[in-house]
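Subject: sequence -> C-alpha cells, single chain

Hey, anyone have a minute? Need the predicted structure for the following. Not urgent.
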Amino acid sequence: MSAVLNPSPALAESLAAAARAVDGVLSGASLNAGLETIRPRILRAAAQDLSFNALRGFGLVDAALERLLERPLMDQVVRALLLAALAELFNRPQSAHAVVHQAVEATSLLGQPRARGLVNAVLRNFLRQGTQLRDEIEKTDSGRFRHPQWWIDRVRIAYPAQWEEVLRAANAHPPMTLRVNMRRASVEGYLEKLAQADMRARAIGGTAVLLERPCRVDALPGFAEGEVSVQDKGAQAAAPLLNVEPGMRVLDACAAPGGKAAHLLELVECELLAVDISRERALRIDENFSRLGLKGTVLVGDAARPPTFWDGRPFDRVLADVPCSASGVVRRHPDILWLRRETDIAGFAAAQARLLEALWQLLIPGGTLLYATCSVFPEENGLQVRSFLGRHPEALAMPLAGVENGQILPGSDTDGFYYALLQKNRS
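Reply:
Had a minute. Here:
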C-alpha cells in the first residue's frame, strides 16, 4: 500500500495552532504574524480556517464563553482555544463530540494539561445550553453582526439604508478575484484556460475574473508566467480611474505590494515610480514586476516626506493609496475588527491629511491625484477629501465613472474601497 502524502493534521493539532494565533490577536498582534510561524503549510491552512471562524464569530463566541465561565480565565491561550472550539461548535454542530474531545486533547499540545477538565466542562455545558445562549446573544447588535458596538454604530450612521448589508458582507468568505495582465493575455482567452483546467469563473468587468471556488495561486494556469494576478475587483478600479496616458510620469505612493502599480503598467507605457516605507514590502513590488514582465522604478521612502525619494521632477499623476483602518477588507483580515479601537480612526485621518498635503506638492498644474483607501468610514474618505478641498481652492474634485460618491461598499464580488480624483488647477 502506498504511503499517504500530506495527511490532514488532527483537529487537536489544528486547534492548538489556531489557539496560539488567536492568543496573539488577543494580545494585540496581527493574525498573519501568528499564522506565518506555523509549519507545515497544511497545518497553517487548517489553523487559519479555525482562526478565521473564531474571529469572524468573536462577537458571538466571546459572549457565550463569558456566560459559560464561572470566573474570568487568567490563561489567555486556553481562552483562545475555547473561542476556536466554540466557533466550531456553532458552525459544525454535527461534529460536536469530536470537537469537544479534540479540544481537550489540544490542551496538552499547548502545555496546559491541567486545563483539560475546564475545557471539557465548558464545552459540554455549551452542548446543553448552546441554542439558548445563541438566541440570547443574537438579540444584541454585537452578537447578531459579530462586530464591536462602536463599529456597528459608525456604519449605521454612515449608511442608514445599507448598514446591515455592509456588516453582513464583512462576515462572509471573501471572493477570489483575478486581474488579467492585458500585456500577456485577454480576459476571454484566460477564461478559456481556466475552463480547460476545470476551474469555473466569470468575467465581472474590466480585467477582473471571479473564481467560483478559491484556490492556491500556484494552481492558476499562467500565474508563474505573469498572465494573471490576484486582486479584488474594487482595487482594480484604481488604475483606470487615474487615466494615465502614454509617457506620463506617475507616482504610486505607499505602493506595496504593488498590485495597483502593476495594473497601471499593464494598461499603459508610462514612467512609474513606486514608493514604500518598508524595505521588505518594497522587495515584493520588485518581485511582482518581475513576474509580470513590467518595468517600473521601486524606491524605499516615506511618502509623507518627499525628500526621502523625490528627485524634484513633478508628476503628471499621483496615486495616494493611503494607510487606513482597512474597515472595507475585514472579511480578509477578521482580526482587524478586534484589534482596532474607535480612537484609531482619528489617528488614521490625521496621517492621511499629512500624506495628502505632502503628495499634492509633487503634482504638476493640470495633473490629477487619486486618493484611495480600503475603508468604509467617512472620516477617512469623503470627510477627509472635503476638508482637503476646503484648504486648497486650486483643487477640484473630478467625477468618477461608475463609482457613486467615490464609495464602493463590500458586496458579493468586491471589498470596500473609496476613491476621490483631485485635479490641480493650472491657474
